[in-house]
Description:
By secondary structure, the chain is α/β, with parallel strands linked by helices. It has 2 domains: about 5-330, ABC transporter transmembrane region fold; about 380-400 and about 420-580, P-loop containing nucleotide triphosphate hydrolases (Rossmann fold, 3-Layer(aba) Sandwich). The chain contains 17 helices and 12 strands. Strands 6-9-10-3-11-12 form a 6-stranded mixed sheet, with helices on both faces. Strands 2-1-4-5 form a 4-stranded antiparallel sheet, with helices on one face. Strand 9 (about 510-515), helix 16 (about 525-535) and strand 10 (about 540-545) form a beta-alpha-beta unit. Bound molecules: adenosine-5'-diphosphate (ADP) and magnesium ion.
Amino acid sequence: MNYNLNSLPANEVKHSTWGGLKSLLKLVEQERTTIVVAVCAILLNSTLNLLGPFLIGMTIDKYIQTKQYHGVLVFSGILFAMYSVAFVSSYFQTNLMGGVGQRIIFELRNSIFNKIQQLPVAFFNENKAGDLISRVNNDTDKLSQFFSQSLMQFIGSIVTMIGAGIFLLVINIELGIATLVPALIILIFTRGISPWVKSRNALNLKSTGSMSAEIQESLNNFKVIIAFNRRDYFKKRFDIANKENYRTAIGAGLANNIFLPVFGLFSSIAQLTVLSFGIYLITQGDFSVGLLVSYLSYATNFYNPLRQLASLWTSFQVALAGWDRISQILSLSNNLVTVFDHSAEEENPPLMEFRNVHFGYQGGFEILHNISFSMQKGKTYALVGPTGGGKTTTASVMARLYDPLQGTVLLKGRDIRSYSDQERAEKIGFILQEPFLFSGTVRENILYSNSRYHHFTNQQLMEVLEEAKLEALLHTFDQGLESPVESGGESLSIGQKQLIAFMRAVLRKPELLILDEATANIDTITEKLLGQILDNLPEETTLVVIAHRLNTIENADDIYFINSGEVTPAGSFKEAVDKLMNGKRLS
Ligand SMILES: Nc1ncnc2c1ncn2[C@@H]1O[C@H](COP(=O)(O)OP(=O)(O)O)[C@@H](O)[C@H]1O
Ligand SMILES: [Mg+2]
């Protein structure tokens, strides 16, 4: 599965106008009752507004021209009452739909966020957080605006137009057809130009996403930027992104504004037609003044909503472009599915086994070439080799952050893909090269995703830590378990972060514990402490240590050299050193 949202072929999740509207309406399925009520309100509103001109025409022909002013007064009263009810129903409808818009944005943000949470590591490698944030915030907002402000106006306008159109045709068919021809031209024009307008808006939303990604990158890396005095460089990059956003916004604006003048022009043409044709009919004696006044009013009632539709159509095209971007995320699924392993269970299988594993990151070269090895329960393994050789990649495949392109990874004799995420996370502890912490306290970070000790008091937890010989690691934190961890660990040293990550992993008592250069930033005394803790692990724990420094691998039962994606067993530490002495090089 291709996880790069910005490289997906443009038509992969692109909605046509109709398809888009349909899938958008699916979104509001559970709001059906509210929407039905709102539609009724808008129907009432439109009907009342449509009856107005008819009554006015009748008043003119029946009462004004015959000078019966009492009747004029009565009809004025009726009209006033009608318009008041129309106003109330319109207000009621607006409030209802405002709520619908807010609930949609709430639901959408939830589903996008939940979807993102389910996606595999590969997705996060491919997409910038800034762009994702823009999709969750900005694009959903466009949709919500459409639902809260535009949808009902849309329906109202169409209902009014159809009603007015019927009146126009019924009062005088020839005049009616002449009046409606310009609308037909508008319709054809709108159909033709809408995809183009939508694509302009899509470009604009995309560049908003890129700009947001640019901001995110410079905010994340501000220390490097300042230390290397590259503020100018980032300013320039932001400038480029901002200019691009400006350019696409102008493009979208130009496209969006094209409807209004065209709609305006054709509605003026229609009014002119009505007026000249109508007066001609009156001179022929086929038409009354009252009818012409009603008629003009209906023509206005037809073309005004049409003009309004122009701006609503724009808002719809913007919403559709946003919906495409949101759907792109919603249509993704985690390609790391759980499969059923049919193979018979072996007796005493190795804890971890690679069988002819090939792996490469998405869209890149193959990194691991045909790797096979097995690791036994309770033993300690060291992975050594030059930077960029593939150690972290091998460990990531072991922990199933990624699936191999070819070959199988087995955990306790079973395809690792046959374990649920929960089971796998319990069995494998992975201390990343760059540990990540959450804002909160040391305690919360140590107990992250640990159901066994979650409810323990601090004192009980300290006893557990003591037993595991972990409590000495807390000494570097002033307030022990309750020491604050701020902004995702920014307030701590990398070494301290590694200590927390270490406690987090060890406390979960995994069967396979992988340390990816976990001691690289820790002083030698603490490192000794970590060594003791590792010695103190349950007998059956399998340990995989990735390290630069030789002293951390001295105790390994088996050492693997990993270089250019090849894994070569080198035996025990002593055997490895002998090999080295015999002229074989580490890298
Ligand atoms: N997320 C990634 N996307 C693409 N390539 C990557 C990614 N992570 C690592 N690589 C590449 O994989 C190779 C092995 O990297 P890695 O396993 O991190 O090496 P090591 O841990 O041995 O230093 C390198 O060439 C690196 O550029
Ligand atoms: Mg590494």
